[in-house]
Amino acid sequence: MAEVSLRRIVKAYEGDVQAVKGINLEIADHEFVVLVGPSGCGKSTTLRMIAGLEEITAGDIAIGGTVVNDIPPRDRDIAMVFQNYALYPHMSVYDNMAFGLTLRKFPKAEIDKRVKEAARILDITPLLERKPKALSGGQRQRVAMGRAIVRDPKVFLFDEPLSNLDAKLRVQMRTEIKKVHQTVNTTTIYVTHDQVEAMTLADRVVVMNHGIIEQVGPPQELYHNPATKFVAGFIGSPAMNFIPARLEETSGALRLMLPDGATLNVPEARVARYRSHAGKPVLFGIRPEHLTDDKPTDKTNPAPLTLTPEVIEPMGMETLAHFRIDGAEVSARLDPATPAAVGQPLRLIAHMDQMHIIDPTNDKVL
Amino acid sequence: MSATTASRDVPGIYHKAGSLRSERRWAMWWAYVSLIVAAIIFLAPPFYMLLTSFKTNAEIADHSLNPWWIRAPTIEHYAAILSNPIFIRFFINSVIVTGCVVVLTMVISVLAAFALARMRFWGSQVLATGVFLTYLVPDTLLFIPLYQIVGGLGLLNSIWGLVLVYPTLTVPFCTWIMIGYFASIPKELDEAALIDGANWMQMLMKIFVPVAMPGIIAATIFAFTVSWAAFVYPTAFVTTAEQMPLTIGVVSQLVRGDTFAWGQIMAGALMAALPPVIIYAFLMDYYIAGLTAGATKG
């Protein structure tokens, strides 16, 4: 059993700067949880507190039911993969992987068996005799993972392990990490600032900002039902568009009035949810993929908009068009066949069944 | 038209390249000239010693001869020194003192530097600066109070007094070198070792010492050189020939009143200088790497 519990965890530095402000999180056995957020949000500090590399100012951390606040890292039965690999430069790949087991006085035959098995899983058997300096970035990262696997720990901790790799290798290693988790099935906590990594790897994503947890949930839930403006804007690429608007009620129906004069009908199913905000300013949130030149998915609420592109970015499989509505930058994903041109008005459809309304007073998604 | 323009531009480009080449040539020329002058200045004294050590006493005393030429080469001074048991004693004393001082220095420096560079404790920064400041105190200022301390311990006129005193010169600088070297080792390496199950001592011995080997070699060479070449302390603390190291033994035994046995002094001094030269020749690359570690990122 290796569930991890964080209970009211606080990390404060000198001068009362709080990096982590009393977070609670329950991670189930075998679960793959990704902590994601911008720089300085407290995700790495949280991971390091779980590892025992940072002291906890307040709260409790339990691994497998045991509170580990005062237990040193070596006795927490965890393994960690670092951003810069942290391989021992004077040791061969084999010795790097065997180091933890040697210190724990495992029999030589057992060490050999585990190292070779991990090398097989990670496809690094031919590299076992090499020194780290003779390896590429991707190979080093595999060795770092191998060092964690051989220990067969209760929990794997990954601290931005792919940040030092180039884009292509990052995608490849992401798949590798997912495969390894499927094979060894160990509880994994993974820190990244890259929301794509978070979405593709996680069973559950924990979005952090300014030392608090904004939302926890499966990737699809965060994408479709973000709880706050921050989560709505952080998850998804390109980011969600936020357009200042006003909700108006006329004869039982709700309409969004955009600053450029456009009016969009709110789907009937959502009217009850938003009615209390009628007559108030709100933020209209819509993802670029839901602002397209396609047919609307919600046939009852076609919401046409005519906008003039400022920048057109052809990506091959799609074209991104960027507009401006009363100072707010807005992006739309177009069919690559659409003849869009800068300065030429373009008719778009807002998929209103996918939109979000945000209360600007507290940045909560309504 | 464009072809004409291009052909007109080309000589200009070549001219610029040529001027860069000539600047580089001048820079090289001046570098060589200064290096040759420096080499002559620094190598002339040992070369003069070498020549003198192969001259007969009569030839050394004859001022009418060219001092840079040997008329009748002889190895009598080397033979005299090597056959004299007291010089062998000096040599053994130097080896014992230097060996003990190097071991003592490295044990203290490596442990101190590891603690100061890696274990965050209250006052560690101040302590690290303090260690370096003690290195700035000249030994000529220290030898009188140290004389009293060594005397109080009953170690005057003993090589063990020197073993006790030399580390006051070597430990601060070696600790400073090692702090710099340890500080350049990425923090994640000790964190990885901690998670792998290492305690502080295992982390030091299995990770830091092997990774910091160039720094350790640099510090060792420094401790060796200081200890082997020390002159002020043995002059002050040792009085009988039996306890003298080479540096003062050669001088005290070969200068009798106004009589200087120049041939033997030169031969003895050259032989005394040989071990550091040999060590430098083999470990120079490590020495430079160790001293410059941490100077630049990555």
Automatic annotation (TrEMBL), chain A:
All copies of the ABC transporter domain together span 4-235
- Kindly indicate whether the keyword GTP-binding belongs to this entry: no
Region (Disordered) location: 288-307
Give the GO molecular function terms.
ATP binding
Keyword Nucleotide-binding tagged = yes
Where does the record place Basic and acidic residues bias?
Answer: 288-298
Record-linked Gene3D superfamilies: 2.40.50.100, Nucleic acid-binding proteins, P-loop containing nucleotide triphosphate hydrolases
Q: Which UniProt keywords apply?
A: ATP-binding, Nucleotide-binding, Transport
Q: Which family does it belong to?
A: Belongs to the ABC transporter superfamily.
Quote the NCBIfam families the UniProt record gives. Answer: PRK11650.1 (NF008653)
Q: What is this protein called?
A: Sn-glycerol-3-phosphate ABC transporter ATP-binding protein UgpC
Provenance organism: Neoroseomonas terrae
TrEMBL record, chain B:
UniProt keyword list: Cell membrane, Membrane, Transmembrane, Transmembrane helix, Transport
Asked if the record carries the keyword Lipid biosynthesis, the reply is no
Q: What is its main location?
A: membrane
Q: How does it sit in the membrane?
A: Multi-pass membrane protein
Q: Name one Pfam family in it.
A: BPD_transp_1
Query: Where is the protein found, in the record's own terms?
Result: Cell membrane
Q: Which domain of life is it from?
A: Bacteria
What residue ranges are annotated as transmembrane?
Answer: 29-48, 86-114, 126-147, 159-183, 204-231, 261-283
Does the keyword section mention Amino-acid biosynthesis? no
**All copies of domain ABC transmembrane type-1, residue ranges:** 91-283
Tell me which family the UniProt entry assigns to this protein. Answer: Belongs to the binding-protein-dependent transport system permease family.
Q: Tell me which PANTHER family the record gives.
A: INNER MEMBRANE ABC TRANSPORTER PERMEASE PROTEIN YCJP (PTHR32243:SF18), MALTOSE TRANSPORT SYSTEM PERMEASE-RELATED (PTHR32243)
Kindly provide the name given to this protein in its UniProt entry. Carbohydrate ABC transporter permease
* Species of provenance: Neoroseomonas terrae
